[in-house]
């Protein structure tokens, strides 16, 4: 039965990954990264069920904390660059190249 | 199952170096909260340097009092020979980088103020500084210490984030060229978060395969669990993506030049030395301890990655016109040389000699790279550091000493005999030949030769061109002077008299990673 959850988790991960690659807005890109982390959580919890131990469920809590810390840092950085450039598009940050 | 919970045993003594650094970081946060503004800087500087020095002394003391043979903290952290050696290396490199951070003028007065706005003017006129830099750097160093010592994938993931998150912020705090700095922070953050999601999904799949995230248990379950090879292979690959990203191995190297160029140069020095050392420690632990039994599957891929990394780094560096980007590509190429050592795996003795070669290379490269970035901070134009190579023309005629020291670092990068780079490369290539990776060594030698071209090009530019009339001035604050002297000393000593450090690396590597 757990296979369905794994398939869902893989789907969410792929949606997140494709979103990071195709979306332009830094906030949306960042949301897609968070979606990938949540897909990881779903996989952890499912595997915990499958393996019959609690490790995976504990790990999910750690991941949530780390994801929360990442949101704090990420939004700070994105808001700063938005205030400077009046744009949160990742296509506009193109000064550093070659 | 009587409902009582066993308290975990934590070996505080073994974890002491890490705890000292994290403790000092937390005290630093409290200083930010409670100390008046004019006192903060004078509290942070000694606190940061003393905690790093104290952690280093504790590491030495532990190494002398015997290397533990089993993992600490309920199997979450492995304080073994290689980990202690890497800790010592990171702490010294971090200490030196903090000396660079100490010198005035690298960091923005107020990061939240829009460049050129009245708010920024006010912050500048009040003489505000971001002293948060110190606790952030300490947290990053703490993460760097935990990363290579983590013995399960959860601890490793948390360490990865503790190391990376402060660095994302530090990247965006340059005083000059604010837009470039903020851009570097956004790029590093988005790509870093993306890659750590891969690392985490890989962890999840390996947990599904082995039923545990403990590296040794994953290693033991290879071959013992049947019918789930898909989980194992995809999991190992995703884990590899996350780790290779941190090293900046091709094809995951794209962030490195941008981030190294945009960040404040002292932070670049910290990343180029400390992060690289920590990431290689973690990569080795994952691939040798957890996936050692899978060697036949991952070595061919790692060969490809190593070749691609060396070639990309060496060739793209030739086209660079910016000194920091050139050093970034050189760092990518050096990551490739180090990866040669990662695939030089074999029997117990072969592993020990490959590991000791890698440890020596990391020390040698770390010192040289901090020294090179220290010199970059000293050559300044009206608008800040002079990054464009054309500005460096004729530096040898105007400031012979600075140019000579920089030339010496470049020769060490190239691996010329009598510099530390030569023995590092020699040891790694030797280990690879012993493991039968001769074609890889041939590629390594050829890309070293290509790399030597652009190092020598800079030297020629510095010594054999005429200086421009409005050339950059050279300003050497006290801390930077000390860093340059220390790095020169280390590069000379490791190049002329490498035996003590080679012996130390050999002793540290002898016991290999504990399981």
UniProtKB/TrEMBL annotation, chain A:
EC code(s) of this entry: 7.1.1.-
Catalyzed chemical reaction(s): a quinone + NADH + 5 H(+)(in) = a quinol + NAD(+) + 4 H(+)(out)
Gene3D superfamilies with a match to the protein in the record: 1.10.287.3510
Membrane topology listed for this record: Multi-pass membrane protein
Bilayer-crossing regions: 6-22, 27-47, 59-82
Subcellular location, record wording: Cell membrane; Membrane
Pfam families: Oxidored_q2 (PF00420)
Gene Ontology MF term list: NADH dehydrogenase (quinone) (non-electrogenic) activity
Keywords: Cell membrane, Membrane, NAD, Oxidoreductase, Quinone, Translocase, Transmembrane, Transmembrane helix, Transport
Annotated family: Belongs to the complex I subunit 4L family.
Described purpose of this protein according to its UniProt entry: NDH-1 shuttles electrons from NADH, via FMN and iron-sulfur (Fe-S) centers, to quinones in the respiratory chain. The immediate electron acceptor for the enzyme in this species is believed to be a menaquinone. Couples the redox reaction to proton translocation (for every two electrons transferred, four hydrogen ions are translocated across the cytoplasmic membrane), and thus conserves the redox energy in a proton gradient.
Assembly and oligomerization: NDH-1 is composed of 14 different subunits. Subunits NuoA, H, J, K, L, M, N constitute the membrane sector of the complex.
Name of the protein this chain belongs to: NADH-quinone oxidoreductase subunit K
Gene name per UniProt: nuoK
TrEMBL record, chain B:
Keyword Chloroplast: no
Keywords of the record: Cell membrane, Membrane, NAD, Quinone, Translocase, Transmembrane, Transmembrane helix, Transport
Membrane-spanning residues: 12-35, 47-64, 84-101, 156-174, 186-210, 230-255, 267-288, 300-319, 326-346, 358-379, 400-420, 440-464, 476-497
EC number: 7.1.1.-
Subunit structure, interactors included: NDH-1 is composed of 14 different subunits. Subunits NuoA, H, J, K, L, M, N constitute the membrane sector of the complex.
Membrane topology: Multi-pass membrane protein
UniProt record similarity statement: Belongs to the complex I subunit 2 family.
Originating species: Microtetraspora glauca
Protein name from the UniProt record: NADH-quinone oxidoreductase subunit N
Catalytically driven reaction(s): a quinone + NADH + 5 H(+)(in) = a quinol + NAD(+) + 4 H(+)(out)
Reported function: NDH-1 shuttles electrons from NADH, via FMN and iron-sulfur (Fe-S) centers, to quinones in the respiratory chain. The immediate electron acceptor for the enzyme in this species is believed to be a menaquinone. Couples the redox reaction to proton translocation (for every two electrons transferred, four hydrogen ions are translocated across the cytoplasmic membrane), and thus conserves the redox energy in a proton gradient.
Protein encoded by which gene: nuoN
A Pfam family assignment: Proton_antipo_M
Domain NADH:quinone oxidoreductase/Mrp antiporter transmembrane, chain residue ranges per copy: 150-449
